[in-house]
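Our preliminary data section would be incomplete without showing what the modeling component actually yields. Below, a chain of 152 amino acids is followed by its predicted structure, encoded as tokens that our downstream tools consume directly.
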Amino acid sequence: MAICGRPPYIPIPYRRNSVINAKKTTASSRARPEQILLGERIANAREARGLSHKQLAYQMGVKKVTLEHWESGKTAPRANRLNQLAGVLNVPLLWLLGGSDQPPPGMGPDSNETAGIEGRLMRAERLVKELSQLLGDLRAETRQVQQRISDD
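Predicted structure:
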């Protein structure tokens, strides 16, 4: 009987990894894109981005071992983590769920992104030099003032 307009709860047998690990490939056979495991796609995308397990786990806010379990197929990420993975790895969510064995072309860091980072890094280096010079000038002025005070 439905309470408050809700249908009754009917448990459905569900094994989290059964769908993900249903089709395993062997080294001797070339797998079709739909046969590539989710974990393999995560690993391929992570490697294409040049991230280590530790770096990706940190960006995702999970433990390194959790990420390793995702990639090995021992466990699977939940839906919210899949969406987050797609964003961090810069791949379409649909590709991550059922794409080919290789990440989409141009998935790695693009030149605009690296050029922007390089520009900010150069600006930071200039600011450090300017601050260093300013600190030196302030130390010299402080010594002069202290010298005048001690002379009086």
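Residues 111 and 117 are 10 Å apart (CA to CA). Residues 110-152 form one domain. Preliminary results of this kind motivate Aim 1 of the renewal.
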